[in-house]
């Protein structure tokens, strides 16, 4: 058994997608550690970089950048492989309260942060991970008070935003042009959610233009939600909806390779069913 943080309460724990047995943990003390679960030992201590209780942390796709947001709204990032990391920081969501969350957007090179605006509305901000000086775009939603449940559908560019006790699930569509946010809307229901989970995209009905499949935990039941994009020519593979995405089912390398600065790329998943034609080629 691995004892984390010397009996202090771990509030956040995130596994690395790309590194085998690498775990990032955070506490409200504040403390921020990285662990080698295979050898059951702590390999990094970044607590000196933190000045306030940590509300959320996340890593980029190759675990070469860590993002942290604190109770005072300080958002900062650094390279966890460095012995003396250079910190990039800004202030995000001064009035964030308990809504502050972070979400990595790997296919866009973005970071999504969640908090509250000056008017008390729940707010989403999109950041360029290479420059945290100011957000690329900020969007306000509503004044609900439920703890946020943000999800991201890689390949579709869709951020889903639910909240514990909310009856609706909002969505934001990202784009690569200067708009940043292409559209937004909401799925409305009278039954509040207690939890949300995206299923792997390969489980979607590809020829039925299902872009996301989601499990919603309600008070006494579980629901399957199907998010579809309307298309007329469903006899063709809609390659604009289903670009290849990273296959993160297996880590890319071991911790020692990561510490030595090894670079690699993920294999990609192609969703085109056999014996079908791409709509873009017809």
Outline of this structure?
This protein has 282 residues and is an all-beta fold. 2% of the residues lie in helices and 40% in strands.
Keywords:
282 residues, mainly beta, four-stranded antiparallel beta sheet, 1 helix
What does this entry look like structurally?
The protein is mainly beta and 282 residues long. The protein is built from 1 helix and 21 strands. The protein has one helix spanning 255-259; strands at 12-15, 22-27, 31-36, 41-45, 54-59, 66-70, 74-78, 88-91, 101-105, 110-116, 122-128, 137-140, 148-153, 158-163, 168-174, 181-188, 195-198, 210-217, 222-228, 245-246, 268-269. The strands form 6 sheets. A 4-stranded antiparallel sheet has the order 1-2-3-4, with no helix packed on it. Strands 5-6-7-8 form a 4-stranded antiparallel sheet, with no helix packed on it. The radius of gyration is 20 Å and the shape is globular. It starts with 11 loop residues before the first strand and ends in a 13-residue tail after the last strand. The mean pLDDT is 92.
Query: Biggest sheet: strands, sense, closure?
Result: 4 strands, antiparallel
Structural class based on helices, strands and sheet pairing = mainly beta
Bin the helical content: under 10%
In terms of DSSP E residues, the strand content is: 35-45%
Please identify the oligomeric state. Answer: single chain
Total number of strands? 21
Spatial strand sequence of the major β-sheet: 1-2-3-4
**SSE order, one letter for each helix or strand:** EEEEEEEEEEEEEEEEEEEEHE
**Form type:** globular
């Amino acid at each position: 058994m691995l004892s984390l943080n010397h009996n202090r309460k771990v509030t956040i724990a995130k596994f690395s997608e790309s590194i085998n047995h690498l775990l990032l943990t955070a506490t409200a003390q504040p403390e921020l550690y990285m662990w080698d679960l295979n050898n059951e030992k702590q390999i990094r201590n970044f607590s000196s970089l933190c000045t306030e209780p940590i509300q959320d942390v996340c890593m980029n796709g190759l675990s070469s950048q860590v993002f942290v947001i604190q109770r005072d709204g300080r958002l900062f990032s650094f390279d966890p492989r460095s012995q003396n990391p250079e910190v990039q920081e800004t202030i995000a969501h001064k009035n964030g309260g308990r809504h502050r969350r972070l979400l990595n957007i790997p296919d866009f090179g973005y970071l999504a942060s969640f908090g509250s605006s000056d008017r008390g509305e729940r707010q989403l901000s999109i950041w360029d991970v290479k420059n945290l000086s100011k957000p690329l775009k900020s969007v306000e939603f509503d004044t609900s008070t439920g703890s946020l449940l943000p999800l991201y559908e890689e390949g579709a560019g869709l951020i889903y935003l639910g909240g514990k006790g909310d009856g609706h699930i909002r969505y934001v569509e990202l784009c690569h042009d200067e708009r940043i946010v292409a559209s937004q809307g909401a799925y409305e229901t009278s039954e509040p959610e207690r939890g949300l989970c995206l299923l792997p995209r390969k489980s979607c009905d590809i020829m039925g233009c299902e872009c996301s499949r989601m499990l919603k935990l309600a008070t006494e039941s579980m629901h399957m939600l199907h998010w579809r994009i309307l298309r007329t020519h469903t006899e063709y593979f809609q390659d604009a909806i289903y670009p290849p995405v990273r296959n993160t089912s297996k880590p890319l390398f071991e911790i020692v390779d990561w510490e030595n600065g090894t670079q690699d790329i993920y294999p990609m998943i192609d969703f085109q069913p056999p014996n079908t034609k791409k709509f873009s080629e017809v």
